[in-house]
């Protein structure tokens, strides 16, 4: 059993929770008029107000002692120095080096990281410029007018989010995303797309991802039937860590952009996986995205623990998940442009920290990642906000607001945080003349915590900063929980079993060794076929 819960700092936090449990947010504001100012921090064009959480100076002190005990900032330094912090795969985690030049000034296994990063960014820029100026041509020597990105998971969610959230360059080609194994999704995504004028990006770190290769294969067959196999291959680009497999698949050598094993899939937006973002925003826009993330990298690297925003947010997460019983982390952006932020952060946090053993291989006896979910706020208000206000399960809510956005959106977001804080008592309802029998149904206890993250504006720089802030927050969570956030063996297990079941369903392998339920399901599907 993991020893974390028996450690002095953990027990001190538990004692602090027991001593302060029952003190309401309303009482905290009444006792500390300067609370909002004291608990507001700014970095990279983002203002974070954590005053509507249950933090007090004594709670902060105990949480910072926990961070010191677990050497969170020491782990940060080891990650930035290129040490193999992903110990189960013996890999560094250097995604920050893709966007912060000084972090790339090191050598890994004889390779200069900065030289590799610069080489790939030059190749991306050349490809983007080549499509724009007509040097990159379609099979019939016509212009490339559209880009299709084929990937899934970390190879899809980041670039899809950035392209949806940010305004495109006026001369940018339309960018389309294909990820789902369901052919119906592919058909919808490509409705109206002229494949003979499309540059098709196949993004897969291993170049063996079943969904990605199935979709890429279907597109290749369609295009090859029109222009021939050799010509069709010339319209494909691969972004992968397995150039050998991409070459075997038929993609030309000069159209293969590398990934490295020190960049995990869910952290790969900043690499050549971001190529569709470079097409949509222009290479300057992509560099702005990187620069925004770099501002947060430097803050995380340099700020002391008490002022280090990613660490502070992670400590809040631990407080609510492990001591206040919150099993949900709800992401609520106010603005349709950020509609894909909740699923992006869902993968980032749950795939990283959905672990049940610590870094020593010992079973944990404490909660790790909560369930992460959410929706655009104006839609969510008419869906799950009832649960937030009057439900029985505690949750920590992140409200994301754009200051330069629509006034009505900001008003709705701030109103919801105020309502979660104050609630609505039966005494208030009595004074308002509400019938006594209805008061219990209309009352809200309030005292529900929330964070407000206010972006100065929604542009490439602030989006990059926001995503880097969450990345480092998740890393700090993992160090506090003593887990490895960079592997995903559960994901790999499910994919391997799917590969084993596919020939069974095709009748090419016997259905042996599976549990009775799986066997029955297989038989039902085979009977229908």
Kindly summarize this structure in a few lines:
The protein is α/β, with parallel strands linked by helices and 529 residues long. 48% of the residues lie in helices and 11% in strands. The chain is globular.
What's the N-to-C terminus distance? 48 Å
Counting DSSP E segments of at least 2 residues, the number of strands comes to 13
Strand content: 5-15%
From the spread of the alpha carbons, the general shape counts as: globular
Rg over alpha carbons: 25 Å
Structural class estimated from helices and strands? alpha/beta
Mean pLDDT: 95
Continuous helix count: 23
Largest sheet: 6 strands, mixed
Q: Which segments are poorly predicted (pLDDT under 50) over 5 or more consecutive residues?
A: none
Strand order of the largest sheet: 1-2-13-12-10-11
What percentage of residues falls in helices of 4 or more residues?
A: 40-55%
Structure description:
The protein is built from 23 helices and 13 strands. With about 525 residues, it is of the alpha/beta class. The strands form 3 sheets. A 6-stranded mixed β-sheet has the order 1-2-13-12-10-11, sandwiched between helices. Helix 11 links the parallel strand 8 and strand 9. Helix 7 (about 155-165) packs parallel to helix 12 and helix 15 (about 340-355) packs parallel to helix 21 (about 460-480). The protein is globular and about 75 Å long. It starts with 7 loop residues before the first helix and ends with a helix. The model has no long low-confidence stretch (mean pLDDT about 95).
């Amino acid at each position: 059993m993991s020893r974390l819960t028996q450690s002095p700092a953990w027990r001190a936090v538990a004692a602090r929770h027991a001593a302060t449990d029952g003190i309401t947010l309303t009482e905290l504001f009444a006792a500390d008029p300067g609370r909002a100012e004291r608990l507001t921090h700014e970095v990279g064009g983002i203002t974070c107000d954590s005053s509507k959480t249950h933090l007090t100076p004594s709670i902060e002190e105990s949480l910072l002692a926990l961070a010191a005990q677990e050497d969170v900032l020491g782990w940060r330094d080891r990650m930035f120095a290129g040490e193999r912090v992903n110990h189960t795969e013996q890999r560094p985690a250097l995604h920050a080096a893709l966007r912060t030049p000084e972090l790339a000034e090191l050598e890994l296994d004889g390779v200069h990281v900065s030289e590799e990063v610069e080489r790939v960014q030059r190749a991306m820029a050349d490809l983007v410029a080549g499509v724009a100026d007509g040097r990159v041509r379609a099979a019939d020597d016509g212009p490339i007018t559209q880009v299709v990105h084929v990937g899934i998971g970390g190879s899809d969610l980041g670039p899809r989010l950035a392209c949806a959230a940010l305004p495109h360059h006026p001369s940018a080609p339309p960018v389309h995303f294909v990820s789902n194994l369901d052919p119906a999704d592919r058909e919808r995504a490509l409705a109206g797309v002229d494949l003979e004028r499309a540059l098709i990006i196949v993004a897969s770190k291993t170049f063996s991802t079943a969904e990605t290769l199935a979709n890429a294969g279907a597109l290749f067959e369609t295009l090859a039937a029109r222009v021939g196999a050799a010509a069709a291959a010339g319209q494909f680009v691969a972004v992968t860590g397995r150039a050998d497999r991409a070459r075997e698949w038929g993609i030309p050598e000069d159209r293969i952009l590398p990934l490295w094993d020190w960049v995990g899939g869910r952290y790969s937006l900043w690499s050549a996986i971001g190529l569709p973002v470079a097409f949509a925003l222009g290479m300057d826009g992509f560099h702005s995205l990187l620069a925004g993330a770099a501002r947060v990298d430097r803050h995380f690297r340099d700020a002391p623990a008490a002022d280090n925003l990613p660490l502070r947010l992670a400590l809040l997460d631990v407080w609510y998940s492990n001591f206040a019983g919150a099993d949900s982390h709800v992401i609520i952006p106010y603005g349709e442009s950020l509609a894909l932020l909740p699923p992006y952060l869902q993968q980032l946090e749950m795939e990283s920290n959905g672990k049940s053993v610590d870094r020593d291989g010992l079973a944990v006896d404490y909660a790790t990642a909560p369930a992460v979910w959410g929706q655009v706020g104006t839609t969510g208000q008419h869906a799950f906000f009832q649960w937030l206000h009057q439900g029985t399960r505690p949750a920590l809510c992140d409200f994301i607001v754009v200051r330069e956005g629509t006034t009505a959106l900001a008003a709705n977001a701030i109103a919801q945080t105020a309502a979660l804080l104050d609630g609505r008592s039966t005494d208030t309802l009595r004074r308002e003349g509400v019938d006594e029998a209805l008061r219990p149904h209309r009352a809200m206890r309030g005292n529900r915590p929330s964070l407000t993250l206010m972006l100065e504006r929604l542009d490439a720089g602030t989006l990059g900063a926001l995503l880097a802030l969450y990345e480092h927050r998740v890393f700090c969570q993992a160090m506090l929980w003593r887990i490895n956030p960079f592997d995903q063996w559960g994901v790999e297990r499910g994919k391997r079993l799917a590969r084993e079941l596919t020939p069974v369903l095709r009748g090419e392998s016997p259905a042996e060794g599976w549990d009775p339920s799986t066997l029955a399901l297989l038989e039902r599907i085979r009977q229908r076929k």
